[in-house]
């Protein structure tokens, strides 16, 4: 896998008083689906802002495609979808809103228009071009905020708590959209407190605690460690816990995989020999 | 209701001595009643009804620059004309454009006009009623001390012309407001080479009205649910706290918004894609016809 982004011993503190990142080093590879986990104030948002180039690390370096990257390069290549769409949306129409990033990249009008059409199509927002964002529902605003970033064609997309304040239907739609983005080759890093969603969606988990990365491995391995889960203030996903219970109850049955969906769990139940 | 009463009084004073008393009374009451019905309060009224009207107008797809410059030309003719009939005709034409062509409900159009018209009527009343040391004119009331409040033929003519000009111009602006979204209007001003700092500010102010209003409404509801407005002293205290919190939250929100802009390569100037449609021939012809007709009417009445 190609390395897209690398953070090397990155430190960042607000006003030199509150250290938010303390020597974070990690690599992000092409096509990965990563969940950034950790309690509030663990450093996830600061990590995202550094990756996107909005914050410049006070110590350490950030590499993009193997070369040290300037903030402008990071902003173009690494898109950041903010938690609250109202903090991100600035324009009076959806079309203008989505055009903001590409226009800042100094692209030609035709190219910008093409990108707007494509981004809106991918987020199922055709026909919303002239709508005012402030009259859209929470789920629609979230899709606009994702289209904002898609139009910039980033290689990595960072999502800061994308499921926060979304209803179950919109969460499901968002999950489908994220999977489609991943299938199209975009590398995704999603910060979330929803461990069930993280477990279902991601293949890799990075756990933050007090500004440090305390775990970085496959998502199953992250949740297998009770110590990591407790230290990061998380809980184990329900399906993962259910599978662990089954393993305890039926020690003679080889339960070979951890179920990520209820269908997988059903398959696991069927394989048990009573 | 205040509008209706003021309009009845204004009409009565304006045409007193020029129309037969019974007819004038009937007209005044009819005007007042119509305004009272059209502008009656409804629980569906929102602060933002103009913005919503602009979004749903059938004229919203018409080129915003064409609408802006046509309205300015019509206003210029109306204010330059010395005949009140020009303002009155413009008022009727604009009502037809908004309601008949734009598809707005007459009640909402009237409600939108009501607020500026209230101020216009108050100003025109001041022109209509003069203070005099002598009892003269078509109508005379005993004022304070030895002075009189009088309505003269000359003041009637002045007030009539001022009211017609103001009403015509206000209806032009309201027609523009209820048929053009703020985004389109700002983009038309940008095309007209307005300073970019003003344009950027206009974009941000427009967006922030909704963000801050939403914050204000949720904080107000939260305060109300905890008896924050149970009596006058508590209400005053709550209002103070609410505005202070609103300021702090707006500041935090502005910081977050700036970060979000920077993350999308913002480097000091807001620019969006040019989305205004080119003016269509029939729209341009209609606007030109309206302007030429009003100008011809003004010239004809002048002569």
Q: Percent of residues of chain A in beta strands?
A: 15-25%
> Which two chains have the most extensive interface, and how many residues on each?
A-B, 42 and 33 residues
Report the span from N to C terminus of chain A.
43 Å
SS content category of chain B: mainly alpha
How many beta-strand elements of chain A? 10
Strands side by side in the biggest sheet of chain A: 6-7-8-3-9-10
The general outline of chain A is globular
Order of helices and strands of chain A: EEEHEEHEHHHHEHEHEEHHHH
Rg of chain B (CA only): 24 Å
What is the element layout, followed by pairings?
The complex is a heterodimer of chains A (274) and B (303).
Chain A (H helix, E strand, L loop, with lengths): L2 E12 L3 E12 L3 E5 L6 H9 L6 E6 L2 E2 L2 H7 E4 L3 H4 L5 H11 L4 H14 L15 H13 L5 E5 L7 H16 L3 E5 L3 H7 L2 E6 L2 E7 H6 L1 H6 L6 H12 L12 H9 L4
Parallel strand pairs in A: 3-8, 3-9, 6-7, 7-8
Antiparallel strand pairs in A: 1-2, 1-4, 4-5, 9-10
Helix pairs in contact in A: 4-5, 4-6, 5-6
Chain B lengths: L1 H14 L5 H18 L10 H8 L7 H17 L3 H18 L4 H23 L1 E3 L6 E4 L5 E4 L1 H25 L4 H10 L4 H30 L6 H32 L17 H22 L1
Antiparallel strand pairs in B: 1-3, 2-3
Helix pairs in contact in B: 1-2, 1-6, 4-7, 4-11, 5-7, 5-11, 6-7, 8-9, 9-10
Give a verbal description of the structure.
The complex is a heterodimer of chains A (274) and B (303). Chain A has a 6-stranded mixed sheet, with helices on both faces. A 4-stranded antiparallel sheet of chain A has the order 2-1-4-5, with helices on one face. By secondary structure, chain A is an alpha/beta fold. Chain A starts with a strand and ends with a helix. In chain A, 42% of the residues lie in helices and 23% in strands. Chain A contains 12 helices and 10 strands. Chain A is globular and about 65 Å long. The longest helix of chain A is centred in the middle third of the chain and has 16 residues, at 168-183. Chain A has helices spanning 44-52, 71-77, 85-88, 94-104, 109-122, 138-150, 168-183, 195-201, 219-224, 226-231, 238-249, 262-270, and strands spanning 3-14, 18-29, 33-37, 59-64, 67-68, 78-81, 156-160, 187-191, 204-209, 212-218. In chain A, 46% of the residues are buried. Chain B is built from 11 helices and 3 strands. In chain B, helix 1 (2-15) packs across helix 6 (106-128) and helix 4 runs antiparallel to helix 7 (153-177). Chain B has helices at residues 2-15, 21-38, 49-56, 64-80, 84-101, 106-128, 153-177, 182-191, 196-225, 232-263, 281-302; strands at 130-132, 139-142, 148-151. By secondary structure, chain B is mostly helical. Chain B has a 3-stranded antiparallel sheet with strand order 1-3-2. The interface between A and B is large, with 42 and 33 residues.
């Amino acid at each position: 896998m190609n390395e897209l982004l690398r953070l090397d011993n990155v430190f960042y503190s607000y006003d030199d008083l509150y250290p938010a990142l303390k020597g974070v080093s990690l690599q992000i590879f092409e096509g990965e689906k990563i969940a950034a986990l950790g309690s509030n104030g663990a450093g996830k948002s600061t990590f995202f802002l550094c990756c996107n180039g909005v914050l410049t690390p006070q110590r350490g370096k950030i590499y993009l495609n193997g070369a040290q990257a300037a903030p402008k390069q990071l902003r173009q290549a690494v898109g950041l979808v903010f938690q609250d769409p109202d903090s991100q949306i600035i324009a009076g129409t959806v079309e203008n809103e989505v055009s903001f990033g590409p226009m800042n990249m100094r692209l030609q009008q035709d190219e910008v228009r093409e990108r707007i059409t494509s981004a809106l199509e991918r987020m199922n927002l055709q026909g919303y071009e002239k709508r005012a964002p402030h009259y859209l529902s929470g789920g629609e605003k979230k899709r606009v905020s994702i289209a904002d970033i898609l139009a910039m064609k980033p290689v990595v997309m960072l999502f800061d708590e994308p499921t926060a304040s979304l209803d179950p239907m919109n969460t499901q739609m968002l999950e489908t959209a994220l999977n489609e983005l991943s299938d199209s080759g975009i590398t995704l890093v999603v910060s979330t407190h929803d461990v069930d969603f993280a477990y279902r969606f991601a293949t890799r988990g990075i756990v933050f605690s007090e500004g440090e990365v305390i775990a970085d491995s496959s998502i199953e391995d992250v949740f297998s460690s009770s110590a990591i889960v407790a230290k990061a203030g998380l809980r184990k996903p329900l399906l993962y816990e259910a599978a662990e219970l089954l393993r305890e109850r039926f020690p003679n049955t080889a339960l070979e995989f951890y179920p990520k969906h209820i269908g997988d769990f059903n398959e696991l139940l069927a394989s048990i020999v009573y | 209701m205040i509008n209706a009463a003021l309009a009845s009084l204004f009409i009565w004073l304006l045409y007193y001595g020029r129309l037969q008393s019974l007819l004038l009374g009937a007209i005044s009451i009819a005007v007042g009643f119509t305004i009272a019905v059209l502008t009656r309060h409804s629980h569906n009224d929102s602060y933002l009804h103009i913005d919503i009207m602009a979004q749903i107008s059938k004229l919203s797809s018409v080129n915003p620059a064409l609408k802006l410059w046509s309205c300015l030309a019509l206003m210029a003719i109306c204010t330059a004309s010395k005949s009140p009939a020009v303002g009155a005709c413009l008022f009727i034409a604009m009502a037809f454009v908004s309601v008949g062509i734009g598809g707005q409900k007459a009640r909402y159009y009237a409600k939108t006009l009501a607020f500026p018209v209230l101020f216009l009527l108050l100003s025109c009343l001041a022109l209509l009623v003069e203070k005099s040391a002598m009892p003269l004119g078509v109508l005379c009331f005993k004022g304070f001390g030895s002075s009189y409040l009088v309505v003269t033929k000359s003041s009637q003519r002045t007030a009539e012309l001022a009211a017609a000009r103001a009403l015509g111009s206000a209806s032009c602006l309201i027609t523009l407001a209820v048929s053009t979204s703020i985004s389109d209007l700002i983009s038309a001003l940008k095309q007209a080479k307005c300073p970019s700092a003003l344009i950027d500010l206009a974009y941000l102010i427009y967006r922030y009205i909704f963000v801050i209003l939403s914050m204000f409404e949720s904080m107000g509801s939260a305060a109300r649910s905890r008896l924050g407005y149970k009596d006058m002293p508590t209400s005053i205290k709550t209002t103070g706290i609410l505005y202070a919190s609103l300021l702090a939250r707006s500041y935090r929100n502005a910081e977050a918004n700036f970060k979000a802009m920077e993350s999308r390569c913002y480097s000091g100037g807001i620019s969006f894609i040019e989305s205004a449609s080119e003016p269509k021939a029939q729209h341009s012809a209609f606007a030109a016809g309206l302007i030429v007709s009003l100008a011809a009417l003004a010239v004809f009445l002048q002569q």
